[in-house]
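User: I'm curious whether this sequence folds into something compact or stays loose and floppy. Could you predict its structure so I can see for myself?
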Amino acid sequence: MDKKFALTGIGGYIAPRHLKAIKDTGNQLITAIDPNDSVGIIDKYFPQASFFKEFERFDRHLEKLRRKGDPIDYISICSPNYLHDAHIRLALRTGADAICEKPLVLNPWNVDVLEELSEEYGKKIYNILQLRHHPSIVALKEQFSASESRKKHKIDLTYITSRGRWYLVSWKGNVEQSGGLVTNIGIHFFDMLIWIFGKVERSEVHIADERTVSGYIELEKAEIRWFLSINNKLLPAKCIEEKQSTFRSITVDGTEVEFSGGFTDLHTKVYEDILNGGGFLPRDAKPSIELVHNIRNAKPLGICEKSHPYLTKYIG
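Assistant: Here's the prediction. I'll summarize afterward.
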């Protein structure tokens, strides 16, 4: 039987991946909301879906469906980060499970409250942790889980993705709304690394501004120098020559981990997992939420011995 979905933030960047996942898994989008009306993407997937610009009317519609005995099964949440908590609560209150983009919430203590509400309402909260479904990342986890070595692996994480002036003007550039660069972008990679290499034992921030953040993390099985930036001037020369706007690199003990491809259908894999009784819950997401919260509130130490090589090469 087809499951019925609602979606918040359908006008945003990530929503098309959710629409595709809902379609690919044989389900239906019944209704959606976004304060902006540039949502023609609906026509490609679910042209019959109801659309609202006002949250109150969307809320009323969900409640109407519930009272008619035709409730929504899942609410997919693609809205700005600071609204995730409220939209998850809406899902639970209207009798739906929530499928939420990262970060689940901005603060770790909100995770605890949501877990209590999930139990109270008897509904599930799922977080999109799609890199845990990437074949190269799954293989990496299997490799290091099987290793009995007590030596901590040396990892360099570098992610530079060009963003124009609009980025800092939008909600993504507002730390109170997005959690900043390390939360909006970095959490994807930090969750992946914690999943593979274990709990956080230590964290340092070396530099932090609105375009670039870098630091050092020590996990149970790894020491990580990380560098995140949306400044296109920091792209390697090869990327600029080939007109590539993103540079992504993870090396483990000097060996590059190849995962440049394979991202297209990860959201569909996440949905398949959830619909088959799996999925990642708030407790799975909490370690990376705690980490980025601590990074966001840490005082930068400046360039030091454990700094990422990019700091001395491009900034130092």
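Summary: Residues 131-263+281-315 form a domain with the Dihydrodipicolinate Reductase; domain 2 fold (CATH 3.30.360.10). The chain has 13 helices and twelve strands.
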